[in-house]
Fold this protein.
Amino acid sequence: MTILITILLLFILFLILLFCIFLTVFARLPKILKTKRTLYRSHQFDGVRQSILQRLDELDAKPYKSLSTTSTDGKKLFSRLYEANDTSTVIIQMHGYRGHAIKDFCGSSFYWFKKGKTVLLPDQRAHENSKSNTITFGIKERYDVLCWINLIIKLYGKNVKIILSGISMGAATVLMASQLDLPHNVVGIIADCPYTTPCDIIKKVASERGFNPKFIYPFIRLSALIFAFTDIEKASPMEAIKHTKLPILFIHGDDDRFVPYQMGKELYESYNGPKKFVSVENAGHAFAYFFDTPQYEKALDEFAALVLN
């Protein structure tokens, strides 16, 4: 009996450990811990910090329509729609891990506004106003992208053109969505600082936090299986790009200290469809637009000319 009780207690402790890991990696971040104005503390952002905050406030104050849809697994999803006179093209912009749409796209969204395009800024599941308590690194989020695509087609008709754009986990999400049976309306993808696989980025971050990635990763994966009912090796950007021929614009800052520059480069080199890679010198994670706005906008000009003509 004593042995059985000991085994039971050890099992309970193991589950508690897994749950703590799950909360650390996959759970929705309480709003009190992070706001849309929270930026990286690294000094590499000092030169662009005020520009980012100014644009963020401008975007936050810009009028929008609230849209909602329901995910394939029944979660209510929320989005901001910035509707222009031209609704023949819509840019769907997916933000990053524990991020905010208006923060991650306070730069490039204004590029599309200047071009008179309609922009959709969804809250990814388990972020802001969208439901779910679990982040799955693009595994389930890719289906949410398809839900937004279908809603845009319903709103603007069967001839609307859609560009999928993402930053960090959002970039991984739109790349993974490319493996799905997307409608012909989707004409291209913009992937800013994407990671190669959920496994790769999780191991990289674990290592930086002092854990042996080979030891801790199986427990991280198991915690997702048990508490999120998700296998984080079920899909990846690296696998998805084998199944699409959509034009893809890859963008990566060469001083990205969160998602390694080499991951973006590896995805680009592995892709066999129409592609371009833009390296932004000295740019930190997720804000390459502000480190070299002319280069970034020139790349968007060329990409838009390619996919919208």
About this structure: The radius of gyration is 20 Å.
